[in-house]
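Query structure, 386 tokens:
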């Protein structure tokens, strides 16, 4: 009888988490089904069904917090006690996405940096956004939107608010011609361009500058082989040179207590989105909001490829990781594929992913969970230290 009661409580908790996450993204549930509102959204109209503010997914009421490893195991490491910051960007997603979806554009500037064509837009109220249009090379505009939806479902709160929006090519073309890649922008027959418009985060975005050997923070045992957190070609080259890598005997602690957990979340998130463009280039895509500020997950346009599975480099980055945040793992266990599809369906330019992409995402989710379970079997409480 006690076992049956425990099972029922676990199932109830799973459903509560799914409903809470999906409801925040504009879904509704009926008789155990997750459905998507069918009300159409005009490309220039105010968005509806806005997602929740930046906040962590609620932990299970019946699930205990993960135990803390013995002090002797991490004596020199600062204790992480923070949660995903609820106001990294100052306001809730709803107001920001409504502005992104409908506000008049007053200025268009070509955004610098990176291979793809993108634009910095100034809106009527003075706020700004980064627009990544559909193009034939380099960037997956829809990946920015799918990454945003997944970030909110997992309760991470590290991806800037984003929404799909169509813009007239005539508005963008004069500025786009400043780039030699302007002809790669995909223009629809009606003269419009579809793309992802992300909130431009104000403030100083500082590239992370961790000490040599920072990768060992993520481990419960000494590393074997070179760090995979570098460009794919650099990693492959390092593997050929030496099977065993040399790391400092003593690595300084992180700049803030929560940094290791943030890095763990980011690496797991990138595996789920299949983003291969995070590491390398002096931490260009690994930035904090101000010095010692929260870690952000910006530039997610190289995820969710149209076809193909998980490559060896992506697996190496996951398998190096041996320490995870407990609430992130719990969130990962609950958003079923249907909830992710429903979240994606709220975007004005939906559908964003095809069936193959959704199936590959689910395989990556299951692969990540299998790895986490293996780490828990091997290292016990040390696998979930936060």
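Result returned for the query:
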């Amino acid at each position: 009888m006690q076992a049956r009661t425990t099972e029922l409580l676990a199932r109830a908790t799973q459903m509560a988490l799914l409903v809470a996450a999906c409801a925040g993204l504009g879904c509704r549930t009926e008789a155990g089904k997750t459905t998507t509102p069918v009300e159409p959204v005009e490309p220039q109209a105010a968005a509806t069904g806005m997602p929740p503010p930046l906040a962590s997914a609620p932990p299970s009421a019946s699930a205990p917090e993960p135990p803390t490893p013995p002090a002797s195991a991490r004596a020199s490491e600062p204790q992480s006690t923070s949660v995903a910051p609820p106001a990294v960007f100052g306001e809730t997603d709803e107001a920001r996405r409504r502005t992104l979806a409908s506000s008049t554009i007053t200025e268009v500037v070509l955004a610098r940096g990176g291979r793809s064509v993108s634009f910095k837009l100034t809106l009527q109220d003075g706020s700004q956004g980064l627009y990544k249009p559909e193009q034939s090379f380099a960037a997956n505009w829809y990946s920015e939107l799918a990454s945003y939806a997944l970030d909110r479902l997992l309760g991470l709160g590290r991806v800037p608010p984003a929404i799909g929006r169509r813009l007239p090519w005539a508005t963008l073309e004069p500025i786009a011609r400043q780039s030699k890649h302007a002809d790669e922008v995909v223009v629809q027959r009606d003269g419009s361009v579809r793309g992802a418009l992300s909130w431009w985060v104000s403030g100083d975005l500082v590239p992370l500058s961790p000490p040599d050997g920072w990768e060992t923070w993520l481990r419960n045992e000494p590393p074997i082989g070179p760090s995979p957190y570098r460009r794919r070609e650099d990693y492959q080259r390092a593997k050929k040179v030496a099977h065993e890598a040399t790391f400092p005997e003593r690595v300084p602690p992180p700049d803030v207590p929560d940094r290791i957990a943030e890095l763990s979340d980011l690496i797991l998130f990138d595996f789920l989105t299949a983003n291969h463009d995070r590491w390398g280039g002096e931490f260009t895509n690994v930035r904090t909001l101000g010095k010692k500020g929260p870690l952000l997950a910006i530039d997610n346009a190289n995820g969710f490829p149209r076809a193909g599975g998980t490559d060896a480099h992506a697996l190496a980055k996951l398998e190096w990781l041996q320490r995870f945040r407990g609430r992130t793992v719990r969130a990962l266990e609950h958003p079923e594929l249907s909830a992710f599809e429903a979240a994606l369906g709220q975007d004005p330019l939906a559908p964003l992913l095809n069936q193959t992409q959704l199936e590959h995402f689910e395989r990556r989710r299951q692969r990540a969970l299998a790895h986490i379970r293996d780490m828990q079997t091997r290292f016990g409480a040390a696998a979930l230290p936060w």
